[in-house]
């Protein structure tokens, strides 16, 4: 092998390293997209409605987590079990506040319309109104500049995958995502709650004949979706900071992920999230970093054009 | 067991039921006859809380259920096999049966076994999704699903619709068995002859009203019923 050969091998080695680093980062992002996408898809499944206020539910989880970290971490540098405890706490608080905000949105913005049998367009306007209200209110209360979150852990590379270092932050997201996705998948497939959500998604009226309380099921759906969205808001905010508009782009991407996987399809939303995260991240190598969002939303347009039912198709009912 | 007094149901400007009154006694099979749009399905849907009556009263086992919400009816003891069967298409046969027991507490595996005994084909198709069943299988599943809620009154809406005659016979035999098992049945049917042969009593509906009611045997020989619902050449 000559000098050129050495150059090539060296070049490929960096490329490979870069590939895996981007892959892992993209997958972590994808997990967050998936967690948010699940909220879109669940609500769509039972109400045939895109909850455009979901981005603000994500934001509320981010702020909730921020305030917890600000109070408990401050300027300290926690490590070990303290870090684990703080991250779990932040995720739970983010999820709890997200779930609370989601039920609030359902109660204020959607339920009155349902009572009056409003047309679909009214829901859309109501959703956009709720979204604007919430992020402007957050802007008024918490300021309109991004605030970085006190870190409950030390972000150092802890493992190497194919030689690529994996930051602690990614490990946290991948672990949290794995736990939540597995739990959600089992809940929807096996529990009474999951069965009632699927029944309402497939045929709400017949579900009520079986004794399923539709209103209650809808609220539970918002709670589940809001909890995951809020938890994702905290995890996202830990890396990027929080602001009143933090939800906009990630939620739009999560919506893309939900459409990509097949809106209404729970596993589709998760898979769509992973795919979008990875593709978007790899576009840095194959296209250009500046084109990342172009690639992400180009996928949305392409899916809508060529396969509007998404990869797995529209079927929340299955959801298991 | 069930008494309906002067029930009126309107959808917007349309009045579907103009003061309907009838009753169903414990242990009977009662059938509602009538043309399409006469209000038979609306009547059953009203009895399950899917349409609240604007006026009138519905009493079930001495309890006023006029404004009771749809999801409460299974717990009260009323099961509903809806028109068009309405199987959950993406759930397995087993899950469809299980959701019939949604409101029950404790184990219902004995009842599952009994359903599989009554409908052996459902046991064979246990793991298949409801949407892939034939019409007859779906009808059996819809009946089994309603029975999983242990109803004392079963509302059956057009159980023979779109089914082959042989399957229809099976369904009617099973309806008879359900009554013999102690469940009262209110049956809406297009197939008037077969329904009347099975039923104890019947009511004839026209344009949202009950025009008359009698014992099934009298209705079978009634000139009006024979002319309109049985056709001239149908034997009783």
Care to describe what's here?
The complex is a heterodimer of chains A (320) and B (236). With 320 residues, chain A is mainly α. Chain A is 75% helix and 3% strand. Chain A has a domain at 27-247. Chain A has helices at residues 3-47, 54-72, 81-115, 120-142, 168-190, 192-209, 214-240, 248-261, 266-286, 292-306, and strands spanning 157-161, 164-167. In chain A, strands 1-2 form a two-stranded antiparallel sheet. Chain A is globular. The N and C termini of chain A lie far apart (54 Å). The mean pLDDT of chain A is 89. With 236 residues, chain B is of the alpha/beta class. Chain B has helices at residues 40-47, 73-76, 93-100, 109-118, 120-124, 135-147, 165-180, 192-198, 216-221, 223-230; strands spanning 2-11, 14-24, 29-34, 55-60, 63-64, 78-81, 153-157, 184-188, 201-206, 209-215. In chain B, helix 7 links the parallel strand 7 and strand 8. Classes of the chains: A mainly alpha (320), B alpha/beta (236). Chain A binds chain B through residues 192, 195-196, 198-199, 202-203, 205-214, 315, 317-319, and chain B through 48-50, 69-75, 80, 82, 86, 88-91, 95, 98-100, 102-103, 145, 149.
Poorly predicted residue ranges of chain A: none
**Which two protein chains have the largest interface (Cβ within 8 Å of the partner's Cβ), and how many residues from each?**
A-B, 21 and 25 residues
Strand content of chain B: 25-35%
Going across the major beta sheet of chain B, what is the strand order? 6-7-8-3-9-10
Largest sheet of chain A: 2 strands, antiparallel
Oligomer: heterodimer
């Amino acid at each position: 092998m000559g000098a050129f050969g050495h150059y090539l091998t060296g070049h490929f080695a960096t490329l490979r390293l870069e590939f895996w680093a981007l892959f892992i980062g993209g997958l972590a992002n994808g997990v967050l997209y998936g967690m948010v996408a699940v909220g879109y898809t669940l609500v769509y499944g039972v109400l045939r409605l895109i909850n455009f206020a979901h981005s603000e539910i994500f934001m509320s989880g981010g702020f909730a987590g921020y305030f917890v970290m600000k109070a408990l971490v401050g300027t300290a540098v926690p490590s070990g079990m303290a870090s684990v405890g703080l991250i779990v706490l932040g995720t739970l608080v983010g999820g709890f506040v997200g779930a609370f905000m989601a039920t609030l949105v359902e109660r204020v913005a959607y339920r009155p319309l349902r009572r009056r049998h409003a047309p679909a367009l009214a829901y859309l306007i109501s959703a956009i109104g709720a979204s604007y209200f919430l992020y402007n209110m957050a802007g008024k209360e918490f300021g309109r500049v991004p605030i970085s979150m006190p870190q409950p852990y030390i972000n150092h590379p802890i493992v190497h995958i194919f030689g690529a270092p994996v930051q602690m932050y990614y490990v946290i997201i991948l672990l949290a995502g794995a736990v939540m996705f597995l739990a959600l998948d089992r809940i929807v497939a096996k529990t009474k709650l999951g069965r009632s959500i699927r029944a309402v998604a497939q045929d709400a009226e017949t579900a009520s004949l079986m004794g399923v309380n539709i209103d209650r099921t809808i609220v539970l759906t918002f709670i589940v979706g809001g909890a995951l969205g809020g938890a994702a808001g905290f995890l996202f905010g830990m890396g990027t900071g929080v602001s009143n508009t933090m939800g906009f782009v990630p939620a739009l991407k999560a919506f893309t992920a939900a459409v990509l996987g097949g809106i209404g399809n729970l596993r589709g939303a998760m898979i769509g999230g992973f795919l979008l995260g990875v593709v978007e991240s790899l576009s840095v190598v194959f296209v250009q970093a500046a084109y990342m969002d172009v690639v992400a939303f180009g996928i949305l347009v392409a899916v809508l054009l060529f396969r509007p039912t998404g990869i797995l198709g529209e079927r929340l009912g299955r959801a298991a | 067991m069930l008494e309906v007094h002067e029930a009126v149901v309107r959808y917007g400007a349309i009045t579907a039921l103009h003061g309907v009154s009838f009753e169903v006694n414990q242990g009977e099979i009662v059938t509602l006859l009538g043309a399409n749009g006469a209000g038979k399905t609306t009547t059953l849907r009203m009895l399950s809380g899917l349409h609240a009556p604007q006026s009138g009263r519905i009493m079930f086992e001495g309890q006023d259920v006029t404004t009771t919400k749809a999801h409460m009816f299974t717990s009260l003891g009323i099961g509903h096999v809806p028109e068009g069967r309405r199987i959950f298409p993406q759930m397995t046969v087993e899950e469809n049966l299980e959701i019939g027991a949604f409101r029950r507490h404790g184990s219902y595996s004995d009842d599952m076994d009994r359903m599989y005994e009554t409908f052996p084909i459902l046991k064979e198709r246990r793991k298949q999704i409801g949407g892939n069943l034939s019409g007859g299988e779906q009808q059996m599943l819809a009946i089994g699903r309603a029975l999983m809620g242990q109803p004392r009154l079963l509302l059956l809406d057009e159980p023979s619709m779109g089914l082959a005659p042989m399957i229809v016979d099976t369904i009617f035999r099973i309806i008879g068995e359900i009554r013999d098992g102690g469940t009262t049945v209110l049956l809406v049917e297009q197939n008037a002859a077969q329904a009347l042969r099975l039923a104890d009593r019947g009511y004839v509906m026209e344009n949202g009203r009950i025009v008359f009611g009698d014992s099934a045997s009298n209705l079978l020989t009634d000139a009006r019923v024979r002319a309109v619902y049985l056709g001239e050449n149908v034997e009783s």
